[in-house]
Design brief:
The chain is of the alpha/beta class and 338 residues long. The protein has 2 domains: 200 residues, 3-Layer(aba) Sandwich (Rossmann fold); 106 residues, UDP-galactose 4-epimerase, domain 1, CATH 3.90.25.10. Helices cover 41% and strands 15% of the residues. It has 11 helices and 13 strands. Helix 1 links the parallel strand 1 and strand 2. Helix 1 packs across helix 7, helix 4 packs parallel to helix 5 and helix 6 crosses helix 10. The model has no long low-confidence stretch (mean pLDDT 96). It binds NADP nicotinamide-adenine-dinucleotide phosphate (NAP) and ligand F7E.
């Protein structure tokens, strides 16, 4: 019998990479999707006939209980969330419902249906926020700076609490920023690589950005979903920081991306004060020593390789659109093999 995994957030960036990874490991993969008037399965289109999708919603407890009862998964990966930090100031209550209480709804369903299910929670380096030490590891105190970060702290601690209260095999992965050609276009890496492609191909003249001095530890989503799986494959549940241990500023990101296409970024980039956040996380750098030691996990894609992969993917996609050749190839293997 193959192992059964259920992924919430399967239509998102990490959901698509994780689904492809688990299928490659021989899993039977189920995905939870919320009802929409039009399907948004763009990122998993290439996997569609190998996945089973089910409608349920993080806001609806009974739909989650029924889903787990019907699928009877061995592992649940809870990736669904309102994940864009600026939106969390515009919709703080909804962010709390999805990103914080949604985790408790998932854990309650595990507890009721089968407490032997192994559970992964998508925690975030945004929990460190206005941190006073560098690098950050599993012992670093949290100081979240957005409603999103605050909601993730709740999700992190409720996961630990259910592990300690009910002996559920629940792990929290504190993942630093991770990107890919499938990243949403509002996040800064993809916003930049998409703009580079459009500027190079004559479709855009300027790129408006916010804080160019913010620094992040950016890795590749394909590497990070492997860490999620490794966490659930251990003998004991634990929490792990997943990061590359290298940081770059947004300015360095921009410079790197524009130079991939032979462009001088200073001719195109302007700062728009409207994109500065009400409270910024200035500086994040992760220490993944525990994951390296216990999971034998290492990132395989460097920052430079990641940005080049994203620029090439966006150039290819925009060129295809200009040529009328239809959508770009999606997924991990498509871009790994290029
Ligand atoms: P993403 O691309 O924004 O995907 C979010 C997913 O959550 C989408 O599939 C979305 O579905 C789903 N979702 C949102 N609200 C839902 C609801 N009420 N019911 C059911 N599904 C819902 O995010 P990502 O980058 O893949 O990140 C995955 C997870 O890791 C998130 O929890 C994020 O907060 C966390 N995280 C991400 C990073 C990172 O750098 N990428 C780092 C640390 C932690 P729709 O397609 O229907 O919108
Ligand atoms: O911003 C700065 C911005 O939106 C990165 C999510 O996946 O990672 C992500 O959160 C930095 C910030 O990601 C623009 O101020 C400048 O300092 O790409 P981002 P994020 O906020 O770090 C964490 C780990 C998560 O968990 C989240 O779910 O870039 N920045 N100018 C900009 N950011 C955006 N989006 N757009 C700009 O124009």
């Amino acid at each position: 019998m193959p192992q059964k995994a259920l992924i919430t957030g399967i239509t998102g960036q990490d959901g698509a990479y994780l689904a492809e990874f688990l299928l490659g490991k021989g899993y039977e993969v189920h995905g939870m999707v919320r009802r929409a008037s039009t399907e948004n399965f763009e990122r998993i289109g290439h996997l569609r006939d190998r996945l089973t999708l089910h409608q349920a919603d993080l806001l609806d407890q009974l739909s989650i209980v029924n889903l787990l009862d019907g699928v009877q998964p061995d592992e649940v990966y809870n990736l669904a969330a309102q994940s864009f930090v600026p939106t969390s100031w515009l919709q703080p209550l909804l962010t709390g419902e999805f990103t914080a209480l949604g985790v408790t709804r998932m854990l309650e369903a595990v507890r009721l249906v089968n407490p032997k299910i192994r559970f992964y929670q998508a925690s975030s380096s945004e929990m460190f926020g206005a941190v006073d030490r560098e690098p950050q590891d599993e012992q670093t105190p949290f100081y979240p700076r957005s409603p999103y970060g605050v909601a993730k702290v709740y999700g992190h601690w409720i996961t630990i609490n259910y592990r300690e209260s009910y002996d559920i095999f629940a792990c929290s992965g504190i993942l630093f920023n991770h990107e890919s050609p499938l990243r949403g276009k509002e996040f800064v890496t993809r916003k930049v690589t998409d703009a580079v492609a459009r500027i190079k191909l004559g479709l855009q003249k300027k790129l408006l950005l916010g804080n160019l001095d913010a620094a992040r530890d950016w890795g590749f989503s394909g590497d990070y979903v492997r860490a999620m799986w490794l966490m659930l494959a251990q003998d004991e549940p634990d929490d792990y920081v997943i990061a590359t241990g290298r940081k770059h500023t947004v300015r360095q990101l921009v410079e790197t991306a524009f130079s991939c296409a032979g462009l001088d970024w200073e001719k195109y980039v302007e700062v728009d004060p409207a994109l500065i956040r009400p409270a910024e996380v200035h500086n994040l750098l992760g220490d993944a020593s525990r994951a390296r030691a216990k999971l034998s996990w290492e990132p395989e894609v460097s920052f430079e390789q990641l940005i080049l992969m994203m620029v090439e993917a966006d150039l290819d996609r925009v060129q295809r659109q200009l040529d009328g050749r239809g959508p770009e190839p999606a997924g991990y293997t498509a871009w790994q093999n290029k």
